C-alpha cells in the first residue's frame, strides 16, 4: 500500500534525529544482590517511543511521569533474565548488559547503546545459577496500566492539538505497562467513534474495529495497523472521517492483553489489504487464515482462552475529544 512507503519515510527521517536526544538522557543504575534497577529519564516527546528502549532482551518494567513532563523508564530485573553476561575475573564477579534504543527492526543495530555493569566480590564456594538449566522465575499477573493517545502526523510524539482537518491521518497509539509480567500482546478488540464521552444504547457510533480485532476501517476507508516494535504497544493509523464533522468526537476502544504465542480467531489484529483483496494478520502474516472470519463472525472454542478470560485482562479506554473539521473552514483551523 502507498501508506506504508510514505509513512516509512516519515518515520525514518525522524528516528535519525532521536539518538542524540536519547544519548543526552539521564541514566541511573543501582545494583542489588541478585538484580539490577535502571532508571532512564526521557523527555515527554519520547514517551511514544519508550517501547523501543531495552535492557538486553527485556523491555521496560514500568514508567513514571514526573511533574516536569519527563518520564522515568524503569528496568527492574534479576540477572537470570534479559540475557545478562557473567564474567569471573579473579575475586570479582561481573554481570554486564546493554541499555539500548532500537528504532528500527531487529535486523538493524541499535541507534544508541549504554553499557550496564554490576561488579561483586565473588563469595567463597559460589556456583553460578546459570549452570542450573532449571534456574529461573516467573512473575504473576498483577495490575496493568494502559495508555492511549493521539500522535502528531509525523509520529514524533503526542499531538499538540485535537483539531484534525478532514482527510488527514489519525495515528492512535495504545500501550500497556507490563511491570514484571511475562511478555503480553496488546490488542484492540473493538473501537468505535461517538459524539459522546460515554456510550449509551441510543448513541450513534462509527465502527472502526470490531469482530474481535478486525480493522473495518481498512475495508471501508484508509487505515492500517503499523508494524510493531514490541508486543506491548500498537499504532492504528487511519484517515479522518466525516462522522461527527465539526463536533466533538470520542474514540472508544476495548483494549486487551494476550499471550503472544496464543493467537486465534478471537485474539488478533487484522487489517484488509485492498491491493491483494485479503485480510492480513499483523503479528504473523503466515497465520493470516485467522483473519478469514473477519468477513463473518469470529469466535473461539479454546479452553485456554476461557481460563485466560477469567482474569479479565481488558480495559475500556476513551480518547478525546477530537474535532474533525473541513479544511476550508479556516476559522476553525486557526482560531
Structure report:
This protein has helices spanning 2-15, 18-23, 216-220, 303-309, 330-333; strands at 26-31, 35-42, 53-55, 58-59, 62-65, 71-78, 85-89, 92-101, 112-121, 145-150, 163-165, 169-177, 185-194, 205-210, 214-215, 223-225, 233-239, 248-258, 270-273, 278-281, 314-325. The relative contact order is 0.13. It is mainly β and 335 residues long. It contains 5 helices and 21 strands. It is globular. The longest helix has 14 residues, at 2-15. The chain has 2 domains: 2-131, Immunoglobulin-like, CATH 2.60.40.3210; 145-333, Zona pellucida, ZP-C domain (Immunoglobulin-like, Sandwich). The protein starts with a helix and ends with a helix. Helix content is 11%, strand content 40%. An 8-stranded mixed beta sheet has the order 11-21-18-13-14-15-19-20. Strands 3, 4, 7, 8 and 9 form a 5-stranded antiparallel beta sheet that branches. Strands 1-2-6-5 form a 4-stranded antiparallel beta sheet, with no helix packed on it.
